[in-house]
Amino acid sequence: MVSNIRSTLENALGKLTPEVVDILTKQVVVRTHEAGSIVCYEGETEAIFYVIQEGQVAFTKKMIGGDQLLGIKAHGEFFGELAVLDHAPRAATVHAISECVLIEIEEETLENVLDISPSVGRTIMRGIIRSVRDTDRITIAELQLKNNELARTLENLKAAQEELLRRERLERDLEIAAQVHKSILPTSFPEVPGFAFGAMSRPAREVGGDLYDVMEISDNHIGIVMADASGKSVQAAIYMAVVRALFLSETDLTTSPMEVAHRIHKLLLRATTSEMFVTAFYATINLETRYMRYIRGGHDRPVFFKATDRTTELLNIPGRFLGMLPNLIVEEASLTFEIGDILVSYSDGVTDATRPGGEMYGIERLEEIILENYYLSAEELARVITQDIDDFREGEEQPDDLTMLVVKAV
Question: Is pTM beyond 0.70 here?
């Protein structure tokens, strides 16, 4: 039973870590719905996320001309994500076409999973984007067919022609985007007393969507950022250039990471589309006291190595994506560096790297390689971790951008 649930969840949400599997298999509810029954009603408030284990469901929405079929989903697909993430009423009525077995995940359980697995969050966000697109497409088509079908047809033809032109320019666009992304990554780090830095960044495609930087905020403060934009290629590179510009401008106003995160989030909502969002780890360090304040906006959990007892901990502060949902949720935490302490922040391409057979590199292996090589310089440690990831992959294709920033107190 547990293996069937795990298989279904991984079909829907992607490869899951043992920690996530343990949470889900212990807390989900599996419920059977008869053919022809209603799973949930449009407009109803219900904070449950569904994954389809067996059967098919149909989605209908009340339109001007009556109920409109939005689509059908089957085994390995999910629905109800917006109702949980944004506490919004159900956008459609869900019908059981055949007898269905549905896995129900309560809001609190999903929140716990999102806090420890940003990759699950990204999968769900992509589902939201697809659902919004599908609903918008149906609504727009219905209204425009009643008012100006010919104008729409001409507009579609024009868009098709523009798409052909864009395809012809694609190669040049990729070159430009690669230059844009390269230009936003630092070529060197500021020389600051008491700290050393090392980094690496390798995109999965021609153009990456990751960002890392060390910024001088004032005479005695620096800012550290590690971020990952949704999507890849040209759009992600340009979006990340916008994100970096916002970090550079907003960090001059305050040393509070939480305030910076909220400012950037609001600006992204105004300036960009809902199809894009960014995960981010952002911290400020007082160079005199070595005191660090930080937030984690939906990003992978950084590893902090303590030199005094040679242990590691994950900075697991709760937080959501920037630039997506209206109400940003982030918390701010703090710690103090001692000499020899190390902070390793990274993108999900590090822990999600896979070897033949599907095994992931994982956070535990990352912690082990840090514990084995803590005595190295920040730059050398970044190189050793990268080499260990490459050896682990055994030639398997790199699935996502591989980016890392190492900060060491010296």
Answer: no
Residue 186 has pLDDT above 70, yes or no: yes
Which SS3 state, helix, strand or coil, does residue 233 take? helix
Q: CA triplet 88, 65, 144: central angle to 5 degrees?
A: 85
The answer to whether 333 touches 293, Cβ cutoff 8 Å, is: yes
Q: Are 57 and 95 in contact (CB under 8 A)?
A: yes
Q: Which two tokens stand for residue 5?
A: 């649930």
CB 367 within 8 A of CB 184: no
DSSP H or E run through 147:
helix 118-147
DSSP state letter for 267: H
Retrieve residue 386's tokens: 């990268």
Give 296's strand partners.
Answer: 281
Segment 127-153 mean pLDDT? 62
Could you tell me how many residues make up the chain?
A: 410
Residue type, 120: V
Nearest to 78 by CA among 113, 41, 48, 46: 48
Helices marked H in 194-294 — which ranges?
233-250, 257-271
Where are the chain's structural domains?
2-142, 175-409
DSSP string, 274-331: TT--EEEEEEEEETTTTEEEEEEEBPPPPEEEETTTTEEEE----B--BSSSSS--B-
Helices 118-147, 107-116: crossing angle, 10 deg rounding:
120
C-alpha separations of 69 from 51, 135, 336 in Å: 20, 10, 56
- Residue range 87-120, pLDDT digits in tens: 878 888 999 999 999 999 998 898 888 888 888 8
Measuring CA to CA, which residue among 324, 327, 319 is closest to residue 125? 324
Is the pLDDT reported for residue 363 higher than 90?
yes
- The residues facing 404 across adjacent strands are 200, 346
* Per-residue model confidence (pLDDT) at position 184: 60
CATH of domain 175-409: 3.60.40.10
Euclidean distance between CA atoms 249 and 280, whole angstroms? 16
CA–CA distance from 319 to each of 17, 219, 228, 367, 369 (Å)?
19, 29, 14, 22, 27
Rounded-to-integer distance, Cα 112 and Cα 107, Å: 9
**Superfamily of chain region 2-142:** Jelly Rolls (2.60.120.10)
DSSP annotation of 373 reads: S
404 — pLDDT class (breaks 50, 70, 90): very high
Q: What value does the mean pLDDT take over residues 350-358? A: 91
